[in-house]
Specification:
Distance between the termini: 84 Å
Mean pLDDT: 96
Shape: globular
């Protein structure tokens, strides 16, 4: 049973699906995609459940979400193992993902009150209303945390949902939805559909009130074109980035190297905020920094999710993804890039890649996100040039600076084209108590995290009074004297 529609677990009627271990190709999961008829049924179930769910007191929706958080805590070890097996990320990192899911409940309640909720000032009243039926399209890199970042605030706002996860992480989605079911979520409020691209396209063409998407820019652009001319529908796009990390005069080379590795290679480079371009100032200090970075990164040995001791990074999501990333590496080498640390793909049947670092200063490369452990180095002469290089991308998700100079960070805050700008912190560090999103090809001005409440409800403004009476002074030209008395 792979789909959850209107409170029942069902077998799919569509194409066969399977999920293999990304490292050794052992089968992990098998099922069938949802058929068009099942997709329609799921949307109709969400539509039927919406009126009752939206009318429930907010406190009831919060209590149910808190029961879900309790269940997440109780099943944290089991869910973390599922995430790790499916994605290839180490157990320690998967455990932090589940903890983020747990924390999201309290943060979303706080955000609801801060960003939406209800307010009154004199005769002016403000309320927020849910959109209706929303589709949530989840990614594979954080199959628990990122869909959860849409699902929790959307449910708290009173929406009902149809959730289609990545076909590469079906087990995590199924396990998460089962916990929502155990928490007592009413039938039809959250429906799960498994499937690939065809399933997603059929779903987004259904009778929905909006789509909440996390994934690639290519898919995001397709959705944006599809929803053109439909302003009545909410579309929240969280996409990728070709992110720049600038290094200038670091106080500690080892500290700068550690921060760079955290920015570029955590989650095997499969975070949308990962550093893709490393901008290093020309000179002896920059040379020393790069030599140390290559030496330390060369010691990183990716391993299985359950290896003991735990590795820093595991595999990418699939051997097919590894092949694409390695092909991008080879193309940069063939184009004349200077190899600082060669990327290795030890087994063509496995998704394990080692970090690769290449100097591409003299190259002109496509402005695309390579979603893996590939770091491109670009040397610059002065900080103005570094900012120009950092901004030379259609994306605008994250940008960072490693430097002791506060005045450089102040410049970057003003001049960087990015939704996240960090100073002496990893690019992959983002607070759930802040908005998360970017500009350009990184999003459509619908940041998530703390601001997810904004796109999960619409504001309803009212002027209200319990009394109905004539004003003391009438507008010019109005005469309310009794009929016949005017002369």
């Amino acid at each position: 049973m792979t789909h959850f529609i209107n409170g029942a677990w069902l077998t799919g009627d569509g194409e066969a699906l399977s999920k293999q271990d990304p490292i050794d190709a052992r089968p992990l999961w098998q099922g069938r995609a949802a058929s068009p008829a099942q997709i329609t049924t799921a949307v109709e179930a969400a539509r039927a459940a919406f009126p009752d769910w939206a009318k429930r007191p907010f406190a009831e929706r919060v209590a149910l979400a808190e029961r879900f958080a309790t269940l997440l805590l109780q099943h944290q070890t089991e869910l973390a193992a599922t995430i790790a097996r499916e994605t290839g990320k180490p157990r320690w990192e998967a455990a932090t993902e589940v903890q983020a899911m747990i924390n999201k409940i309290a943060i979303s309640v706080s955000a609801y009150h801060a960003r939406t909720g209800e307010a009154q000032q004199g005769d002016s009243e403000l309320r927020h209303r849910p959109h209706g039926v929303l589709a949530v399209l989840g990614p594979y890199n954080f199959p628990g945390h990122l869909p959860n970042g849409h699902i929790v605030p959307a449910l708290l706002a009173g929406n009902t949902l149809v959730f289609k996860p990545s076909e590469l992480t079906p087990m995590t989605a199924e396990q998460t939805v089962r916990l929502w079911q155990q928490a007592g979520l009413p039938d039809g409020v959250l429906n799960l559909l498994q499937g690939g691209g065809d399933c997603g396209r059929t779903l987004t063409q259904s009778s929905l009130d909006g789509v909440l998407f996390t994934g690639s820019a290519a898919t995001g652009y397709q959705l944006h074109r599809q929803f053109a001319g439909q302003p009545e529908k909410m579309l929240a796009l969280e996409m990728g980035g070709n992110n720049a990390l600038i290094v200038e005069d670091p106080q500690s080379i080892d500290a700068a190297v550690h921060l760079t590795i955290q920015s570029a290679f955590i989650t095997a480079g499969q975070r949308c905020t990962c550093a893709r371009r490393l901008l290093v100032k020309r000179g002896a200090q920059g040379d020393a920094f790069l030599a140390r970075l290559a030496a330390v990164a060369a010691k990183i040995e990716p391993g299985r999710w359950d290896a003991d001791p735990q590795p820093f990074m595991g595999s990418v999501i699939s051997p097919q993804a590894a092949e694409h990333i390695y092909g991008e590496w080879q193309s940069r080498v063939a184009a004349g890039g200077e190899v600082l640390l060669p990327m290795r793909w030890p087994s063509k049947t496995s998704a394990i890649l080692t970090p690769g670092i290449i100097d591409v200063t003299a190259l002109t490369l496509p402005d695309e996100e390579v979603f893996g452990p590939l770091l491109a180095v670009i040397r610059y002469d002065d900080f103005s040039q570094a900012i120009r290089i950092a901004n030379a991308t259609r994306y605008g998700l994250s940008c960072g600076l490693i430097s002791p100079h506060r005045e450089l960070f102040d410049r970057l805050l003003i001049e960087a084209r990015a939704g996240i700008v960090n100073w002496n912190k990893p690019l992959t560090g983002a607070a759930s108590t802040a908005p998360f999103g970017g500009i350009g090809a990184s999003g459509n001005h619908r940041p998530g995290a703390f601001y997810a409440a904004d796109y999960c409800a619409w504001p309803l403004a009212s002027l209200a009074s319990a009394d109905l009476s004539l004003p003391a002074a009438l507008s010019p030209g109005l005469d309310f004297s009794p009929t016949g008395e005017a002369s």
